[in-house]
Specification:
Length: 71
């Protein structure tokens, strides 16, 4: 079962199944080494954004972007 990253619980770890979006967003995710098969930690959730961690790095992403990442 896949679900949008925005539906994942805070504190949970998930594997990225697939992601889609604008090329510049996809390039940014790739520079952070977030791609299909990556393990990501949901550090914090808010109504407008999420903080996720991957590979020892943390990044803030808007929920609109996070909803396009399926875990």
């Amino acid at each position: 079962i896949m679900l949008p990253l925005t539906k994942a619980a805070q504190g949970s770890v998930h594997t990225v199944k697939w992601a889609f979006g604008l090329p510049e967003i996809m390039e940014k995710l790739e520079t952070l080494k977030i791609h299909q098969g990556s393990r990501i930690l949901v550090v914090q959730k808010d109504k407008d954004y999420m903080i996720i961690g991957s590979g020892g790095k943390r990044v803030v992403i808007e929920n609109q972007v996070a909803s396009r990442i399926q875990v």
